[in-house]
Design brief:
This protein has 237 residues and is an alpha+beta fold. 15% of the residues lie in helices and 42% in strands. Strands 1, 2, 5 and 6 form a four-stranded antiparallel β-sheet that branches. Helix 1 runs parallel beside helix 2. The radius of gyration is 20 Å and the shape is globular.
Length: 237
Amino acid sequence: DDVYLTKTGEVSIVDPWIRSKVPSKNKAVLSLQLELRNHTDIEQKGVLKGIIQPGNIEFTEDLVIEAGKQRTFLLDDSKFSQFIIQNPALWWPNGYGQPNLYTCELTYMVNGKASDKQNITFGIREYGSELVDGVLHLKINGEPVYVKGGNWGMSEYLLRCQGKEYETKIRLHKEMNYNMIRLWTGCVTDDEFYDYCDKYGIMVWNDFWLYVAYNDVAQPEAFKANALDKVRRLRNH
């Protein structure tokens, strides 16, 4: 994967996560969970600003983070009525509707200056599942989905698939009327893979390196840390 450095101010935004509930096709309810990390030895009082597009949905919240701490904050519809969206453009898997996407720009301001910014792309959708006679039934936005797809081992035999090269492969899944890719062994972590799956309405069944785990995991804590990191990094997809 890419390696990069970023520079922030006194406080940085960590792992923002937008979740959605879809009680009906005409209504969605959003919530935002994020962590703030204070890199200084004094308390920081700042303002979180956000704007969701399309719709110009704006929100602000005063957030205080203690010296040297990292803490989780939750913003939801109990305080922000604008998180209740009427007639949302829902994200649908291929064959069930359009894979509509929204963006959210977050800025944490300290003393009137931007300390950190992050942009999130997400779809408004709600997953549901149940076991019926031992068979897993999957629903998206309350609608039963007939899952069709294929296994994806490696992106390319020598791992040379990068960036926009993912688009052709994933678009072909869409044109074959597939709606899911199973990541066999969970071996693909490139952001572009997930971006194009979002764009083309492809769900992802993500394995966690236990597909033939007949033996115990050699390092259980390392395994759990790896899995948790992958979930946090990709959960907005």
